[in-house]
Design goal:
The protein contains 19 helices and 21 strands. It is α+β, with helices and mostly antiparallel strands. The strands form 6 sheets. Strands 2, 3, 4, 5, 8, 16 and 17 form a 7-stranded mixed beta sheet that branches. A hairpin with a 2-residue loop joins strand 19 and strand 20. Helix 14 crosses helix 15.
Amino acid sequence: MALAITFIFCIILSRLLYVQLAWGTELKLKATDQWNREIPVIAARGVISDRNGSVLAGNRTTYSVFARPNAVVDKEYASTVLGGVFSLDPQEILKKIDGGKVSEVTIARQVSKESIEKLVSYDIAGVYYSRDNSRQYTYNEALCQVLGFTSNDGSGLSGIEKYYNNILSGKNGEITYTTDIIGIETENSVVVYREASDGDEIRLTVDMEIQLAAEDAMKNVYESSGAKAVSCIVLNPQNFDILALVNYPSYDLNNVPRDDKEALNELSRNCLVSDIYEPGSTFKVVTAAANIEEYLNGNVKAYSPSYVFNGSRTRTVDGTKIKCWSDHSNGKHSNQTLSAALNNSCNPCFTDMALSLGSQTFYNYLQKFGFGNVTGLDFNGEALGMLVPQTAVRDCDLARIGFGQTIAVTGVQLACAVAAAVNGGNYYVPHFLKSIVSANGKTVSEYNPVLKNKVISEKASSMLAEMLEGVVSEGSGKKAYIEGYRVGGKTGTAQKYEDGHVAQGKYVSSFCGFFPANKPEYLALIIVDEPQGTYYGSAVAAPVAKEIFEDIIKIKNIQRYI
């Protein structure tokens, strides 16, 4: 009996020690939760601004309204008043506060100060409110696919709002007060206030003046060409800062079409990041870069800049005829050097280069230039592009890749590849983030350019840039020429495919240009999807790049280079 009593005593003592020491903290929290109620203090979401500090996404003060069902004395009266003040169904509110299954229910979010003042005048027991924030976008439609939008509770759902949500969100605070067992505030309630920590500011590389200029230019070409959609990216080739990005049609960030999910998904897609297309002749920049680099490295299979290509319009590869876009009747495509081939955008010349380099060498360059892989952009949903596996590529495929067919890329991939080809051969990770600034104005961190690859040598890059300057001054890119400024670039016109077949009459027109040609500071890729009537990139896309470059020259007060 003594042993049994001792054993039972030890069990009770062990249980007591466990409850007091191991379980004590948790039980204290549960007790505190039972006798206390909290009203959230919502942290202000961090601002998103451009590189110059101009606010792109900010906040306006709104309020959230809550009810404690056990503390609401006259539920029907309360439901009627709340429904009238906030334009809600009183019966739905009554269902929420009459159930008695939860200690607190949310009645309304993001309501105005005027509505709260009206609510306060009724002095309804058991109904509370707290400050929250509603997102407000300064420029409505501008940059909408980049900035993205938030949910009703303030969490990022797309774009930068989603990618940097943890930094922008901050940490909510609360007001705590004591209640009785059924949740009614006690007479001598102790109120404790825990301050919210506001989110940090995300400062982007985007220059809003350049963005607005690009927006206007793209709207103009969208309307004048009757295109299905248009896109543009402007970046700094020296560090891959993204200065502007436009997809049009767009939508108003202050009036997001949340009720039409299909339309919202379509309009909010950042096509330059998430969608792929056959680039056509703009891709010839990459083929030329690989050829020049191999020539400088002593590869006997590469063509020298002075080599004169066969003037034939057709090449037959693996039994497949590959033709030039031109019928060669005007004599311009005869006896061409590499520079002339770029000027005339002659397909057979680039077919010759790709085949001569061979799949192993050419694919090494494709990999260096980032094709078939993501660029690493700080944005969700980046596509890989589409590249035939090297083990499966045939000569006819390789020939077509040489002039921008049988390969699919994103707009960001192509812009970065061309930028690396003309900036001295440096491929950086493209980025939107410039810096993170705390709520008190101190810089938390600053982005430093990340060199991803050295794709070609400075000499090869300089030679290529000079050739591409010739494309604008005397070749197919003449409509991008600006008197007194050294502009380089390459046009592109690609047929579209549907269900594995050429879609008759449907084209993607493009132009990728940069200036100054000897040391590029600005590069713009223009993509016009399914223009009506005239569809050549030289006629549709090149003038848009000129318009944007001329606006940049005015905005930055850039003096003549020549």
